[in-house]
Amino acid sequence: MSASVRRFAMATAAISMAAALAACGTAKEAGDKKDTVKKKKSGPLSIALLLPEDQTARYEKFDRRLITKHVKELCADCTVHYANAKSDVAGQQQQMDSMITKGVDVIILDAVDSKSAAGSVKKADKAGIPVVAYDRLAEGPVSAYTSFDNEEVGKVQGRALLKALGAKAGDGEIVMLNGWEADPNSASYKKGALSVLEGKVKIGKSYDVDRWLAEKANENMAGAISSLGKDKIIGVYAANDNMAGGAITALKSGGVDPLPPVTGQDAELAGVQRVLSGDQYMSVYKPYEPEAAAAAEMAIALGRGAKVDAAGTVDSPTTKGIPATLITPIALTKENVKDTIVKDGLWPVDKICTAKYAAACRAAGLK
Asked: Tell me, what's the pLDDT at 9?
């Protein structure tokens, strides 16, 4: 296990890859994979990294950089071939085809659409190329999976919203801005949130926001204000920070004052700043370091032909018993910004505490 995983990973994130790294000379075929799986014993690996979109800051700023870093730490001569699908399902299928044709040794795939990815995953499997499903569980014969406990993400958001509402939980209605239907994580976030919220609050409007776009969340929020009335909305469940930003803009434009508590996810810079200023009640901090480290370790093990030693297993609609490492999310509020994302180095204080947020940063003990 890398030092960064020991430093950052929660209890559910434990993963040991000693067997994988020891397999350079005596590689063993992983799990139930077919005889077509490459048994690459030594030498550099060619690893494809396919990420889904560039609307959310995390993929370009964190995931790409961290996965590449951990690959290089484990295998200095390994090559990472990167592509971003920019939310285009067909585009990602073409990228998969290109990587298969290129003959990469292993693919790390964060699918735009988990169901649509199944065909490409099957092509890779037929070509003897194992696929690590990253962050979203793609369908098809994937060889390993790492992500966060996505139902727990929704529960964390739901519990935070109830805490913010307190005794006012029965005084009005909340609006739910759920993630994009094509993203399998969205259903898990929603399921987790509803398990906490149903029966405790009245849900006035619920939307599945197209492609997680802030402008679509803004449109949906404006529609909810028009339909429910600005004085009836007591809280907003927004599945991520990007949509929270769009919702908050709509609330301000709609004359909602004071702002109701709004949830988020991903601890994006703008989201963190809104949390500190009080515009957004909370976000969900998901430490990307252990997730990226697990993906790199899984990919190298599979590229060597070794079995992945993960913390547990998950089932997809098409594949059972997939080796999986799931990482626990953390509720981020202004009270713990300093002890979480700043301490872990996700965002430096000088990036967070611009002149606009100087007073909020002082109040939170950041300056």
From this structure: 43
Strands 46-51 and 106-109, sheet pairing: parallel
Q: Which residues are CB-contacts of 22 (< 8 A; sequence separation ≥ 6)? A: none
Given a contact cutoff of 8 angstroms between Cβ atoms, the answer to whether 225 and 233 are in contact is yes
Picking from 119, 52, 58, 141, the residue whose alpha carbon sits closest to that of residue 91 is 52
pLDDT tens digits, 130-155: 999 999 999 999 999 999 999 999 99
Tell me, what's the pLDDT at 5? Answer: 39
Please state, in angstroms and rounded to a whole number, the distance separating the CA atoms of residues 341 and 47. Answer: 29
321: helix, strand or coil: coil
What per-residue confidence (pLDDT) applies to 30?
Answer: 37
CA 365 – CA 329 distance, rounded (Å): 23
The phi and psi torsions of 237 (rounded to 5 degrees) equal -90, 105
Tell me if 20 sits within 8 A of 309, measured CB to CB: yes
- In this structure, of 2-6, 102-106, 245-249, 288-292, the range with the lowest mean pLDDT score is 2-6
**Tokens encoding 145:** 């999976």
DSSP sequence for 165-214: HGGGGGSSEEEEEE--TTSHHHHHHHHHHHHHHBTTBEEEEEEE-GGG-H
